[in-house]
Specification:
With 634 residues, the protein is of the alpha/beta class. It folds into 4 domains: 136 residues, no CATH class; 43 residues, no CATH class; 323 residues, Vaccinia Virus protein VP39 (Rossmann fold); 65 residues, no CATH class. It has 19 helices and 29 strands. The strands form 8 sheets. It has a 10-stranded mixed β-sheet with strand order 4-24-5-21-20-6-9-11-10-19, sandwiched between helices. Strands 1-29-28-27-26-25 form a 6-stranded mixed β-sheet, covered by helices on one side. Strands 12-18-17 form a 3-stranded antiparallel β-sheet, with no helix packed on it. Strand 25 and strand 26 form a beta hairpin. Helix 4 packs parallel to helix 6, helix 6 runs parallel beside helix 7 and helix 12 packs across helix 13. The chain is globular and about 110 Å long.
Length: 634
């Protein structure tokens, strides 16, 4: 190997894979307990000594486990060596949008997203396989999950169908589902903001296991609620036993900072507000003036008040007290906020709440009837009206359901929403419609496996090959509909930014970097030939745009970062990659040789990150650049 191809010790290499979650956890453990970590290894004896009595190693201690849990943890700890390849031809406004659709196996994708999006997602919604016996279970290969995905999607030769159902006769029926869900939920938690929330749709088959699993991943103290959603409006005549009318939505927060949003009041709820006594403040509704505490619990709220008609002293019942203190009550009387009924005939007063003083919406409850949140049949009709393929999904979710979840969890107008079991992309449909309604700029990341559609389905006959194809087309049609609806109207803006009606498409693929397979033959000539192959780690036929996107993603840049050619650089092609969300950028040159005049015209300094191919540098250039700027090489 020539001298100029020796690896420069002053130039750091670019990242070749996704973040190592195990290493990240060890680093966090070292930050908290430095004495328990040495040379990258955890000393459990020292950790036990530090924690003392807080360590519970009793054989019968409370725990949740299943067959395959170790495999799930091992899979989680395996970094992804894949990449995400941009597909501008399948996108809408690729260069300007902040929305993303990713076609690929979701665990590999989540690992790739980790470095760029950790702690940035406000709300996650997923509708995973319910494990009813016919649902497909993702075929996690613990040694090479990317290879399994490439075979599954026809990018490599394979035998048989790699997506398999999970019948109840399986010896690991529940375990297989838990093993599939665990690593995905674990990475999902890392992507959430400290005030973020995750909603997971499920039915009776796995709701109990899901709750145990999420207790472990998120911590049972972060349980928010289990919502019961009425998915049907009638029991089917062919239902066996007692007909199931509901699904569940299990909600957990990342931490204690989650502050749920309110649901908007409906016209039915506003109808309660009337003005029977012609109060000049307008329509009002009466509320209970009693508290649910008793006089032993709140003795200061147990006192008599005067009836305005009879002058008698009125006490609350012994099992209750008044809502307010004496001083606050006197203020209510002065402001004429108590209602004693027609002709003041009530025994105890009611509290007037005026419609024009309403600020917040309605506190969400855990019971969501179909009249408020839609049902499966409504969702099928919505999809059919938009796409013309009603038979593809047996239990799709209605837009109204997702809208309610967004109003509770995605309360900020410019927050990020993630769905990594995207299906027909109803989450995107709801995000775009809600943005149009309230002027928000919520962004989305959708992830969907390109699962083949059955050949005899209407969707397949309509030209859709995979579930991912349907999801992408639904987004395009929703965007077109919103654009058509806005024709002739003033352009909607959030602040100074226009409405974002676009999305970038990326596809999971093999890395542009040559995988290291080792040297089988130690013979000098064979060894030299093998090492010569790795002078340039990029695979033959590499595409510059794809390489730049892979470098950016694995260096922690968002998928929505901007890429532009730098003008005025002499002798070389240089691009600037900018992540506006993170306020960072770097310069990259992928030419075979870097010219001295290019280095001069780039005018690099200590704050600049410059990336190029290692083989393109001479030793002198590498040494000078390492002193001049932050240098990384491919």
């Amino acid at each position: 190997m020539s001298k100029k191809h020796k690896k420069n010790p002053k130039a750091a290499p670019v990242e070749r894979s996704s973040a190592d979650l195990l290493a990240a956890n060890i680093a966090e453990l070292k930050r908290l307990f430095p004495e328990a970590v040495a040379e990258g290894k955890v000393d459990f004896a020292k950790l036990r000594a530090v924690l003392g009595d807080e360590v519970d190693d009793r054989p019968e201690r409370y725990s949740f486990t299943w067959a395959g849990k170790r495999d799930a943890i091992r899979l989680l700890q395996t970094p992804s060596r894949a990449t995400l390849v941009p597909a501008p031809e399948e996108s809408v406004d690729f260069d300007s949008t902040n929305n993303v659709f990713i076609e690929g196996e979701n665990l590999e994708v989540l690992k790739l997203l980790y470095k760029s999006y950790a702690g940035r997602v406000k709300m996650i919604y997923i509708d995973p396989p319910y494990n009813t016996g016919n649902d497909f279970i993702y075929p996690d290969n613990f040694t090479d999950p990317l290879d399994t995905y490439l075979k599954l999607t026809g990018q490599k030769d394979s035998e048989g169908n790699l997506l398999t159902s999970n019948p109840e006769s399986s010896g690991r029926y529940h375990s297989a589902w838990l093993t599939m869900m665990y690593p995905r939920l674990f990475v999902a938690r890392q992507l959430l903001r400290e005030d973020g929330v995750i909603f997971v749709s499920i039915d009776d088959n796995e709701v109990h296991d899901l709750r145990f699993l999420m207790n472990e991943v998120f911590g049972e103290e972060n349980f928010v609620a289990t919502i019961v959603w009425q998915k049907k409006y009638a029991v089917a005549s062919d239902d066996q036993g007692i007909g199931s009318m509901h699904d569940y939505i299990v909600a957990f927060s990342r931490g204690p900072d989650f502050d749920r949003g309110f649901l908007p009041r409906t016209e039915k709820q506003f109808a309660r507000y009337v003005n029977p006594d012609n109060d000049p403040r307008g329509d009002w509704a009466s509320d209970n003036y009693l508290s649910n505490k008793n006089k032993d619990q709140r003795p200061t709220l147990y006192y008599p008040i005067e009836h305005p008609k009879t002058g008698a002293q009125v006490w609350p019942p012994e099992h209750a007290v008044w809502r307010y203190s004496r001083a606050k009550h006197e203020q209510m009387v002065k402001e004429k906020r108590l209602y004693w009924g027609p002709d003041r005939t009530y025994e105890r007063p009611r509290l007037k709440r005026f419609r024009n003083e309403l600020k917040d919406g309605v506190v969400p409850s855990t019971w969501w009837p179909h009249t408020d949140a839609g049902h499966n049949d409504e969702a099928k009709k919505q999809l059919a009206a938009l796409m013309g393929n009603p038979s593809t999904f047996s239990t799709p979710k209605p837009v109204r359901l997702l809208r309610r979840l967004l109003q509770i969890g995605a309360t900020e107008p410019d927050c990020l929403v993630l769905d990594f079991f995207a299906g027909s992309c109803v989450t995107t449909h709801a995000v775009l419609e809600l943005n149009r309604e309230d002027g928000g700029r919520r962004q989305f990341i959708m992830v969907q496996l390109p699962e083949a559609i059955p050949a005899d389905s209407l969707a397949r006959k309509s030209g859709y090959q995979t579930i991912a194809d349907i999801g992408k087309e639904r987004i395009r049609r929703v965007i077109k509909k919103l654009k058509d609806d806005a024709k002739g109207k003033l352009a909607l803006k959030h602040g100074d930014a226009p409405e974002d009606l676009g999305f970038k498409v990326f596809k999971l693929a093999e890395s542009n970097y040559r995988p290291w397979s080792g040297v089988e033959n130690t013979d000098g000539e064979a060894y030299a030939k093998t090492m010569e192959m790795y002078i340039d780690p990029l695979l033959p036929g590499w595409d510059a745009t794809n390489v730049i996107h892979e470098v950016a993603m694995k260096e922690g840049y968002s998928l929505t970062c901007g890429i532009e050619k730098v003008e005025g650089v002499a002798g070389n092609t240089v691009h600037r990659v900018t992540d506006a969300d993170k306020g960072q950028s770097f310069l990259i040159c992928l030419d075979d040789k870097l010219k001295d005049k290019a280095i001069k015209t780039m005018d690099l300094n200590k704050d600049h990150l410059f990336i190029c191919r290692d083989a393109a540098l001479t030793d002198a250039q590498a040494a000078n650049l390492a002193l001049q700027c932050k240098l990384k090489t491919i």
